[in-house]
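Batch job 17 of 40 flagged for manual review because the log was empty.
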Amino acid sequence: MRTKDIEVRLTIPFYYDKPDGNGNVYSKDAIYNALLNLKIGLPIKFLDNSGDEPKLIGLTTGKSHIVTDDEQNGRYLLTVDGVVLFGGSCEQDVLLNSDQEITKFDITSIGLSV
């Protein structure tokens, strides 16, 4: 089932005062100030460890931008709304009526296509 852009809501943790995956340590104030100055329409990219260039898969929409201090776990949580460009699902066990309208199906996976 091919759809138009898919609306998403992402919650991303930003840990402070301890090393990240690259060994960098960010202060609580540095993260907070960066999150306060977050722009609308940021790219959402797919990154892997292959060394290939990141692939643009979507954009933040700015409909929601929530910053929560999860002090107990030493992190801020950033929640943003966005869209993933195109995509849909794969189906099987598709049942058609006499008008070739799908009346029943099972979703077997969710896919993105860019």
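Reviewer: the log was empty due to a logging misconfiguration, but the result itself is present. The helical segments are 28-36. Unflagging and moving on to job 18.
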